[in-house]
Task: structure prediction
Amino acid sequence: MRVDDAMLREDPTMSDTFLTADPNDTFSMLEGMLATAAPRVRSTDVPSVFEVRALDVSYGSKRVLHDVSLDIPEKRITAFIGPSGCGKSTALRCLNRMNDEIPTFKMRGKIRLAGQDIRGKSVNVTALRRNVGMVFQQPNPFPMSIYDNIALAVREHESRIARSTLDGVVEQALRHASLWDEVKGNLKGSALSLSGGQQQRLCIARALAVKPAVIMLDEPCASLDPISTARIEELLLELSADYSIVIVTHNMAQAKRISDKVAFFLMGRLLEMGDALQVFEAPQRQETAEYVRGAFG
Amino acid sequence: MGPLQDEGRHRIGSRVGIALCWAAAIAVASVCLFIIGYLLVQGWHSINWTFLSTDPVASMTEGEAGGVRTPMVGTAVLVLFSTFLILPVAIGAAIYLAEYMDERWWITRIVRIGLETLASVPSVVFGMFGLAVFTLGFFKFLSASGTEGGNMAFGRSFLVASIVMGVHVLPFVIKVAEESIRNIPLSQRQGALALGMTKWRTIRKVVLPAAKSGIATAVVLGMGLAAGDTAIVMLTLGGTMTMAVDKWWQVGNWVEVLKGAGSTLTSYIYFNSPAGDGNSPGAALGAAFVLIAIVLVFNLAAVLLFRRQQRAA
Ligand SMILES: Nc1ncnc2c1ncn2[C@@H]1O[C@H](COP(=O)(O)OP(=O)(O)O)[C@@H](O)[C@H]1O
Ligand SMILES: [Mg+2]
Result:
């Protein structure tokens, strides 16, 4: 899926292949992709989906991000790491303007998605958020059926969608989030009856259903057991063939396992950013070296 | 003494405290059960099919007060109609208070103080106020006029009583509904916003459906309050035991019923109690039995609905 200017407008003129494709067809295509899944070392020398320049953020009088500039590579996994309170979530939430909901929030600097200023006049926040999906630390499915969790998101942007098409989109999203096989017999069941890991995958499916270009996850495995965590990691690796992914994580092993690029934050500053291998094996800064070794935080 | 055995310094104090709390709780429960039990046992004697299916009779003789058919209907009409009238306002206000108002705005403070004042005004004051307002000629269309002639309206009818009762229960309904809206976790709202839903769509599609049973609880509690109030009925529904319209069950008469005076279980109880004109305590107790049963059903429904919300959240 390509990011282009039209995606940020109220009326996206994106291709509808996602909606009209025969689910089985797409599924076998996906399986094909998995077989040749990207090698673990991938070049990050690819176009950027996000460009952040000189980002300063404060809540009221409290400054929490200082002069952060970074690029998020397209169709790669970028990890934000750093000790608690260093501003990772804040940085993430700037990218889909979720911070706008906080009255004391103030920011300076430029953030461009596919070259377009996300705070520009013509930009519609709802269109931005549709294109930049977000998954939270605590799974937060809506208290309704599994089907409706996804249908609600889809209808929000495509109110006239036919029931049969919608069924296809829901199935598609659940398959993409590798949840379909576990829930296909129980689509009308409550989302709250799923396990934590399943709920988190449902939240990912929900985000996927509105056809984003970027998926951001803020410590998505923090409340999950190791097996559920492994499933999510596997899923993210699969999804990174089609989506640009940004993940905040406290778990160094996780960052090592899945990320292509790593940004290390410390006390509101971006201390170091580079290819995952480099950051973990040959960090440039003393602090980074200590942090990735587990010396603090 | 080992480290695991303390000297019992706080032990006696704790026991006394706990015992006092238990005693208080048991005292409250037994007073409550005694009152309800007394009324139920006493009232039970008067309950029979005739009592439930005949209309009240204005009589000074003990045992000739008739039955409670129209008062039951009156209670139902008043409860349903007042709820129906305030529902949109109550839900709208609850959404506004829970979702949009900033506690720092002066308007928020005024609304909050207003609601609290409204909640603490005794219902007899509302009744008096309602009577003062709705006897103005301008409001003739709400109550059958004629008797008092000129440019005065009669000022007493199911419509008038419903409006006044609605204002009386409004702050309680708003309060409970607001609370249940606030109880929907922030994480779900954020989930919706992050999907590109606007705030209003988030409220419509995620928050309100999740708060549905809490809001229903609020409404049912309001109905219980309306069913139990007496002063507003006495003042604005008319000082009568009977329904103004005879064939009230005919659809064609319903507008007239709403514009006419009538009675409810509470006013029936008042008239037949030793304090009223009727002096038929047996009938009053029977009506009390019916009323308590109705209010208990409302409260039970509220509890069940509330549980459902708890489970869903
Ligand atoms: N809504 C808020 N209001 C005020 N301060 C906040 C708010 N959210 C986060 N902060 C502060 O901003 C700093 C960065 O927080 P956050 O971005 O959540 O860090 P991280 O995700 O790296 O743990 C912390 O000091 C935190 O206390
Ligand atoms: Mg965080």
In short: Chain B has twelve helices and no strands. The CA atoms of residues 94 and 178 of chain B lie 4 Å apart. Chain B has a mean pLDDT of 85. Chain B touches chain A at residues 102, 185, 187-188, 190-198, 201, 205-206, 209-210, 312-313 (CB under 8 Å).
